[in-house]
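Exam revision sheet. Question 4 asks you to relate a sequence to its structure. Input first:
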Amino acid sequence: MSVAAKLIAKDPLVSCREIPLTNFPLRIGRGEETDVRVGDRWVSREHCEIDCIDDVLLVRDLGSKHGTFVNGRSVLEASLKPGDLLNIGITRFVVEYDSAHALALRRERLLAS
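Answer key, structure tokens:
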């Protein structure tokens, strides 16, 4: 994998403010068996997972009760771009990563503005 990725927690319920995304798939939830534990009662035990395919981050909802949201939109599966807001339960994360693909996406966003 050639991306350097992390989630930046925007809420105090996450024990770690920066979560490096290095081993995929990475499961996020309230349960002890998850890779990243979130102490939010609105988060399911196994809420979602993040994977990396061809240097693109993907989030998949794992049948959570309250859903997974990317930029305010409920998703079952979605790509994550740099700067995207990932909400699980009431916990918010900002996605940060760089790759050749991510740099191209940034250029596209700037040109579209």
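Marking note for examiners. The chain has a mean pLDDT of 85.
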